[in-house]
């Protein structure tokens, strides 16, 4: 399950970066903002998974 969450986080980060870049290139502020939000969501999900890994006993 953790690998699935990590992959989803990475996907959100990448998709957000793409939307942000495309929005900036075409001058679409709403797309650029949507990209920032999605990238942040991916960053938060990745941080959550990293914290869970740190707490999880080995």
The geometry reads as elongated
Quantity of strands, as a count: 0
Query: Major beta sheet, specifics?
Result: none
Report the sheet-strand fraction.
Answer: under 5%
Instruction: State mean pLDDT (0 to 100 scale).
Output: 93
**End-to-end CA span:** 16 Å
Q: What is the N-to-C order of secondary-structure elements (H for helix, E for strand)?
A: HH
Radius of gyration: 14 Å
Extract low-pLDDT stretches: none
Structural class: mainly alpha
Number of helices: 2
Helix content: over 70%
Account of the protein in words:
- There is one protein chain.
- This protein is 90% helix and 0% strand.
- The protein contains two helices and no strands.
List the helices and strands and how they pair.
Blueprint lengths: L1 H25 L2 H27 L3
Helix pairs in contact: 1-2
Kindly list the characteristics that best describe this protein.
single chain, 58 residues, mainly alpha, 2 helices, 90% helix, 0% strand, elongated
Short structural summary:
The chain has 58 residues and is mostly helical. The protein contains 2 helices and no strands. Helix 1 packs antiparallel against helix 2.
């Amino acid at each position: 399950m953790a690998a699935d969450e990590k992959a989803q986080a990475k996907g959100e980060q990448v998709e957000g970066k793409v939307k942000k870049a495309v929005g900036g290139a075409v001058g679409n502020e709403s797309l650029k903002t949507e990209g920032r939000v999605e990238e942040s969501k991916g960053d938060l999900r990745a941080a959550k998974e990293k914290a869970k890994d740190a707490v999880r006993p080995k």
